[in-house]
Model the fold of this input.
Amino acid sequence: MALVDGRRVVLALDTSSDMLVCGVAAVGEAADCDANYDTSSAIVSPMKKPSGAVQMLSNRDHLCRRQANVELVSTVQQALADANLSMADVDSVLVGRGPGSFTGVRIGIATAKGLACGAGTALWGGSTLDGVAWTAWKSGVRGKLGVVADAMRSEVYPGIYQLDDTGAHRLFGTEVVRKAALCVEQWSALPEAPELTVCGDGLVKHRAQFEQAGFTSILPEELWRPTSEGLLLAYTAPDAVKDRAAGDPALVLPVYTRLSDAEENERKRLGMQVPASVALTGTADVLAGMHLQLRPMSINDIDQVAALDTLCFHDSVHKPWTRTMFEEELSAEGRSWWVAHDMDQIIGVAGGMLVGDDMEIATVDVAPHRRREKIASRLIARLAYDAQMLNAQSISLEVYEHNTAALALYVSMGFVQEGVRPNYYGPGNAAHIMRATLPLSIDAVAGEVAPEPQASIRPWPIVAQARSEQTKQALAQAGNLILAIESSCDETAMAIMDSQGHICANVVATSIDFHARFGGVVPEIASRKHVEAIVGVFEEVMAQAGEHFGCDTLEPSDLSAVGVTAGPGLVGALVVGVAFAKGVCAGAQLPLIAVHHLEGHLLANLFETPDLKPPFVASLVSGGNTMLVHVRAWGDYHILGTTIDDAVGEAFDKVAKALGLGYPGGPVISKLAASGNKKAIHFPRAMMHSHDYRFSLSGLKTSVITYIENQNKAGNPINLPDLAASFEAAVIDVQVAKALAAVEQTGVSEFCVGGGVAANPALRAEYQHKFGKRGVRVTVPPLAVCGDNGAMIAAAALRNFYAGQFVDLTLDADPNAALGTWSSLVTPVVQRWKQ
Done:
C-alpha cells in the first residue's frame, strides 16, 4: 500500500443508481479510516466537525444506465491512472451498499468484493443515501434535507438529514420502502415540512407530487445523485457509525430494505391460492423424513398452525394463539412467518415482527414428536435472514425462565439475556428477554450452511504468509494456476486447476434450500445468494489449494488467470460471477477468460475419459437445457436439436412440484422410480418419431399432472414409485432414441452426456446398455461434476489460456450465449477426476 503525503488511499465506487460513482481520494489520519456510515442506524451519534481530510485525487463519476457491469472496472482503472496510482497503492475500497437498484447494488458490491480479494485490501460499505446528502452538504446546502431515491414500482427510499456546518446528519433512516405518494403525505405532516429541501433521483419520476404538496425547495438535478466525494465524506465523518463488517469483504452486503419481488409475490400467492389436493396415500414409508422443507406461511396453513400451537402449549404457562391471531399476523406489515413441513404435514412454525431495527420473535413451535431435529434453529435462521434483508440489526424474543431446552438453544445461537419481565407468563412466572446481533452465529443452524454470510477465514486486509521450500517447489512444478468461477444458476462454485489439468481445489456452495419453497430457482434470490456466498467460496477454494501445495492458503499472486462463466444462464446470477471475476483480475492484475457454461458441461466428460477426442455426439441435459450436439472438433459444435419448450431437468422439477415432493425434483423422482414399475402407467413419448432431433417435454408434464388430478378426483391412491418410474421411462426413451439416431447419422463411435440430469442413474444405465450393443463408447462425467461446478469451467478456461484467448474487463454476462462463444480449437488438457 502507498501513502499520499502521509494519507491513506481509498477507492470509492457505487452503482446502485444510474450514476456510476468512481473516485480515488487521499484520506488524512485525522479521519477515522476504519469508520463508515452504516445505513441501519436511523440516528447517528452527536455531531462533530468534519476533519476535512478527504482530498479527491481523481473523479470518474458519470451517468451510466444499465451499463455498469461493462464500464465499472475499466472506470476504476482509469480513475487510478488519473491519480498515477494502481490497485497496489489502494489502502481500502469503499462501496455504496444502496439502497437502490437491486441489480445495480449487486454489480457494485460484487466488483468491490473482487477488487478487495484480488488486492488483499479492506472493503467497507457505505450508504448511498448518505452519499447524496453529503454531496449536497459539500455544495453548500444547509438546513433540513429530504432525500428520495428511486426504488422503482412507484416507490422511493426516503431519508431526512440535518445539514449544518459540521456535516450531514441522518435524522430518519431507510427502514421501510414507501410509495412516493405516501412519502409525500408523511413528510407533509412533519413540523419541519415548510423548511424541507428535497433532492434525489426519485424526483425524476415523482417531482410533480412533491411540488403539488408544497415542497418547492428542490435542489438542482446535478445534486440528486451520489458522488464519490459524497460517499467518501460520509465514510470519513467523525460521527459515522462503525460498520460490523470491519473491513471484511465477506460481510459487506447490499441494503435491500424489503424482500425481493419474488418473495413478496410468493407470499401473496400463498395467501390467495389454495393448492390442488394431492393424495399421497401409502407414501409415508417411502418418503418419511426425506423431504423436510421450510417455506413462508400461507393462509392455507392457518388451521394446522393453530392446532400445532395448541398442541405445543396446551399445558404450559404460555397461552396458545387463536386462529384469528395468526390470520391477523399474516395480513400485518413487517411480519415474517415460516413453517416447516414434511410432505403435507406442518411440524414447525415461527414468526416475528419488525420493530425499528429489531426483529421480535413472537413464537417458535415444533411438534413434540419432531423435536431435537434442529427444526427450531432452522426456522429462527429464516426469520433472522428476513430480518437482515429488511435491514434489522438484531433479533429478540421472550422465553419462559424455566424452559431450559429453549434457553440452551437460544444461547447456542448467540442470544444473550438482557433483561427479565416478572410475571410475564402469570404470577411467579418470569420471562427472560434475549437478543442476538445479526447476522447470527454459524452455530445457529447446527451443522447446516448458515443463511447469513460468515466472516472471512483470515483478518482483513490480508497479510501474506511465509512459504516453505517444499511449497515453493510444488507451486513451481504445478505451473500456471487457473481460478475458475461458476455462477450461472443457484450454485456459487470455484475451482483451481494447474497447467497439467489437475484439480487442486473444488468448492460448491448451493442455495437450493432457499429455492425449495418456491418449487424452482428464483432468479432474484439466486443473484442475492451469489453476492453473499462468493467471498467465502473464494477463500475456501484458495485455502483448499493451499493445503494441496502445503501452505495455509494460495494468494492471488499465485494465479495466472481467472476464468468465469459468462453465459448462458440466469442473467442476474451470471452478472455477479462476472463482476467478481473482473474485480479479482483488476485487483491482482490477472488476465480474464470467458467460458461458455454448456461447454463446461461438455468438457466435464474429460474427467472420466481424458483421451476423449472429437468427433462425437453429446447430449446436454440439465434444468435449463436439452440438446444434442455433434462435436466435430474442440470448439466446433453443430447443434443437431434442442427442446422446443421445457428442458428435461425442468420437467422433473415441475412433476415433483405437482406431487408435492419439493425441489429439486430429479433426485427424489429418481429414488422413487428405482422401486417402481416403469410400465405401470403409459405416458406419451413426445416427438419420438418426429424424424429430427428436437425435444418436447411440456406435453409429458401436462399428461402426468392430468393423471394426478384424475386419480385425486376418483379418490384413488397414487403409487408414487410406479408414477415416478413411468414418467422417468417416458423421458429416457425419447432421449436415448434420438441419441442413437444422431450417432448413426453422424457415424461417430463416441457418445457423451453432460449436465445435471447426467447424474440420473437410469439414464446413464440406458445409454450404456443401448450404445454398448452397437460398439459405441459412452462417457458420463463423475457424479461430482455433473451439476454446476467450477472444475468444468476450469477445464475450458485452461484450454483458452493455452490458446491466449483472453477477454477485456468490459466483459458482460450473456444469458443467451450460443454454444461455441469464447471457444478455442486447442485440445483441452484435463486429468482423470480423483475423488
